[in-house]
Amino acid sequence: MTRTTDAPSVTRSRHAALIGSPLLVVGVALAASNLRPAVTSMASVLGPVRDGLGASAAWASVLTAVPTVCFGLAAITAPWLGRRFGMARAIGIALAVLTAGLVLRVVDGPWVVLGGTFVAAAGIAVGNVLIPVVVKQSFPHSVGRVTGIYTAALSGGGGIGAAFTPPLEAVLGGWRGAVGAWALLSAGALVVWLAGARHGDGPAHRPVSSEPRRSMLRRPLAWIITGFFGLQSCVAYVAMGWLSELFVSDGISRTDAGLMLALINLIGIPLSFVIPPIALSRRSQSGWIVGLASCSMAAVAGLAFAPGGAPWLWTVLLGVGMSVFPVALGVLALRTRDASETTDLSAMAQGTGYLVASCGPLLFGILHGATGGWGLSLTLLACAVAAEMVLGWLAGRPRYV
After folding, report:
1. 11-199+216-395 sits in which CATH class?
2. What b/e readout covers 4-23, taking b as 16+ CB neighbours within 10 angstroms?
3. I need a labelling partner for 226 at 20 to 30 A (CA). Which of 16, 50, 54, 109 fits?
4. pLDDT tens for residues 17-44?
5. 255 Cβ contact list (under 8 Å, min separation 6)
6. Sequence spans of domains, the chain
7. pLDDT tens digits for range 136-155
């Protein structure tokens, strides 16, 4: 009799919003700080990895594309995981999978590196989709502020991964130890997340309306937001995957190139505390999106015509342009009416968007390998930024999907 009466309350609790405590904010920040080092740590030592494995340029192009492909494929399963296990357990599982992937990819040859990167990216993908939902559910009156903390931690993690992996390579005797060391950070984040993520005792969140809901696939605005999210991700992952190699090919040392890659991510930390609270409190985010993307366009032009002329300036401009990411995350919440819609839109935008974005690093590398230069690759990147500006303007207008 006791089991029969207790079961419904357990189900309700598991699917209720997480308690919006300060410890949950810390858990969100630490989880977010692990969503980029898997990418930037490998990118900062891509040359030594490729040389050490005897891999080809095509393999390197595939490696830079694997994370975004996996982000897209795994993001589709994230809503199911959230519904099946609840947000606390689903994100905990994601961090555990990420940790396992980070360890796996440094134990063997080129195919194991690709496989481990795919596993790590699967964990990242689930966090990418579900953490913005936690922010909307648990901090409904502070979406801009907590989104800023989340994206600042995400940028900081990416920057630290890029900056410290090359020095760690020398200290730990090779790229395997340097890249694998980031599993310690994700394991620590998992411990804190399990301590801080607690579901409330209230009922599960349900759609306010009892009417059947249309699929996001049938909503034009959802496709616009998906296109915008995919293009801004494309620009970001091309930069994280290839900027270091571009600078090295222009005569800049690998250490300095790694620091520039780190700076791109670290610029996002202060901007994440400033831009989201302001931009997401406005009715329209269109102006902010176009303004930030314009900085990316200026950086791409500089890289095309004078890469060695002012590399730090191009780095700063690109970092400012990539700060459109927290605005893109905020748009997912602002263009939906409830947490259920946010989950669906987040899965669609990140699932399909990251699959689109995965083409960017792959094509960028293929064009570079085919031509031996960067001109055609950077032209492709400029086209992606231009399309991002158009779709971002439409996505930022005040309306619901």
Report:
1. mainly alpha
2. eeeeeeeeebbbbbbbbeee
3. 16
4. 788 788 898 999 999 999 889 888 888 8
5. 166, 167
6. 11-199+216-395
7. 788 877 777 888 888 888 88
